[in-house]
Amino acid sequence: MQTLDVVGRLFPQILSGEKNSTIRWRERHIVPGPLKFLCDGNEDEAVTVIVTRCTDMPLSQAAAFVGKQDEWPDEVMLEGMREHYPRIELSSTVQVVEFELPPC
């Protein structure tokens, strides 16, 4: 099964269904289907989601693509992404991974 690590502060948003996409740069290529998120810093926390769509695009387009353009203007997006990827640029090609929690 494909897996991705996620920072602990974002893990509860995945569990609640509030977070339904992730933006990745130079990480393993994700494809639609099951995906297990592993919580960084807590090996006991994991959740399996269903990836519905994966789209490659410049980072500068990602916020609008996921409907967060008002929350994530370019400067905010770049600063946030650089926490995880210090060398990323707005022109860098990222993978936007959209997912949903499986039905209960």
Q: Can you describe what's shown?
A:
- This protein has 104 residues and is α+β, with helices and mostly antiparallel strands.
- Helices cover 21% and strands 36% of the residues.
- It has 3 helices and 5 strands.
- The chain is globular, with a radius of gyration of 13 Å.
- The model has no long low-confidence stretch (mean pLDDT 95).
Key terms for this structure?
alpha+beta, 5-stranded mixed beta sheet, single chain, 3 helices, 104 residues
Biggest sheet overview: 5 strands, mixed
Percent of residues in helical segments? 10-25%
Shape: globular
* Helix vs. strand class: alpha+beta
Rounded to the nearest angstrom, the distance between the terminal CA atoms is 20 Å
Mean pLDDT: 95
> Secondary-structure element sequence?
EHEEEHHE
What are the segments in which pLDDT stays under 50 over at least 5 consecutive residues? Answer: none
Structure annotation, total helices: 3
Using the CA coordinates, give the radius of gyration.
13 Å
DSSP strand (E) fraction? 35-45%
Order of adjacent strands in the largest pleated sheet: 1-3-4-5-2
Query: How many E strands?
Result: 5
Secondary-structure map with pairings?
Blueprint lengths: L1 E5 L4 H6 L4 E4 L8 E7 L6 E13 H7 L8 H9 L10 E8 L4
Parallel strand pairs: 1-3
Antiparallel strand pairs: 2-5, 3-4, 4-5
Task: Give a summary of the structure in a few sentences.
By secondary structure, the protein is α+β, with helices and mostly antiparallel strands.
